[in-house]
Amino acid sequence: MSEAFSILRREFIYIWYYFDIQFRQIFWYWVIGMVIGSFISVFAKDRIHGLFTGIQKKKWGVVGIVPACLLGIASPLCMYGTIPIAASFRKQGMREDWLAAFMMASILLNPQLIIYSAALGITALTVRIITCFLCGICAGLVIHFVYKDKEFFDFRGFSERESHDTHPNLLVRYLLNLWRNVKATGLYFLFGILLSALLQRYVPQDLMVRVFGGNEAWGVLMAATIGVPLYACGGGTIPLLRSWLAEGLSLGSAAAFMVTGPATKITNLGALKIVIGVKRFILYLIFVMLYALISGLLIDLIL
């Protein structure tokens, strides 16, 4: 009995050691990400969406996909928050290729996730931003050329959700948003660190190298596939990515994971299926997987 207890105690110490290291390395990125994300959500969200409405008056044609992507990345809303906003944009006559670019970029990246991803290092952060931005561009171009004379989205029944940020005191409004942010991401953040610690303790490094390394195409495909069931929260996956990158995950494989993860997150898929229908939903999944695989291979080839 005492021997079993000693083994459990030893394993707990090992796991706590890995957990503590990861926590210390990532915690402040998480805090800063929430602080900045809540600030943008409370004080800059309407300005960002106003800018998107403003570009509707510009005669930019397909080039308008570029600012649409940038504003999608700047938007702090989740997909369930983005779709009602997009519905209101569509009612105002917004082009569908611009909407597709805005929504795709918004799914993949936001200011808070950019701060989180800084914990992966400047190279991985740059790869994530460029990959997600180009994915939004590609989504817009697909809608522009394939569905030029057809409607892709069906926003019937959607209306803009009532904002929670309504308290008359600006400081209280910000603190309430920050608290909602903590509740929404905190458990995922801690679970991600715990899962990373368990993997570091019990999964041999050479196994990670065999799965994600060696054959680049296989590693990218595996990372893209794993991103589908594993991704639940952007902040929660950062500890895993840090650990995998240290153990042999290529930047191309990481990029593939960072595309398929948020793009196939179950809540995002549920929202998208409502507004694009079953057939186009399947096409969306094919697009995401192909883009993740091709971009991952190109990144590994370049870097």
Task: Write structural notes for this entry.
The protein is built from 12 helices and no strands. It is mainly alpha-helical and 303 residues long. The chain has one domain. Helix 9 packs antiparallel against helix 12 and helix 10 packs antiparallel against helix 11. It is globular, with a radius of gyration of 20 Å.
Brief overview, please?
By secondary structure, the protein is an all-alpha fold. It is 80% helix and 0% strand.
What labels describe this entry?
303 residues, mainly alpha, 80% helix
Architecture blueprint of SSEs:
Layout: H1 2-55, H2 65-74, H3 79-91, H4 96-108, H5 111-117, H6 122-146, H7 170-202, H8 205-212, H9 216-230, H10 234-246, H11 251-263, H12 266-302
Helix pairs in contact: 1-2, 1-5, 1-7, 2-4, 2-6, 3-4, 4-6, 6-11, 6-12, 7-10, 9-11, 9-12, 10-11, 11-12
Gross geometry: globular
N/C terminus separation:
53 Å
What Rg is obtained from the alpha carbons, in whole angstroms?
A: 20 Å
Order of helices and strands, N to C?
Answer: HHHHHHHHHHHH
**Approximately what portion of the residues adopt beta-strand conformation?**
under 5%
Question: Uncertain regions: pLDDT < 50 for 5+ in a row?
Answer: none
* Structural class by helix and strand composition: mainly alpha
